[in-house]
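Q: Hi! First time doing this. I have a protein sequence and I read that you can turn it into a structure. Is that right? Here it is:
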Amino acid sequence: MTADLTQARKLYHESVAAFITGNPAVQKPLWSRRDDVTLANPLGPPAKGFEQMWQHAEAASALVSEGEDYSFDPVSVVETADLAYEVGIERNKVRLGDAPEKVPVSLRVTTIFRREDREWKIVHRHADSITEQRTIQSLASPGKNPTG
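A: Yes, that's right. Below is the predicted 3D structure, encoded as structure tokens:
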């Protein structure tokens, strides 16, 4: 892995640690400003384009506070000349919304980076709470009839 991608990933993980304290601003400069930027966080539908993505990110950050003990356990990191991605599990302890106590949170995360003007920028982040094997029945959406 190149030194510049290693540094970009380090800054990104530091920004996630700040994000879970309720401070998303640290992460903002790490994102691409191009129209194809996407975010799929566990709190809502996917967002596309920097402005929409950032609105979703700020809204999500407002729902967490007092985050601590952030760690990232990589499953895979791949780098090509102009694209790179990492897949892994983020773990931390955080206060969710108005909850009285912090709780442990684990997220399965995929982040894609793209080289833009000789530096790595985030172009996609997907995070969800699926960190252990589930049954096929868990895919069913409660209260929805797939046949119309």
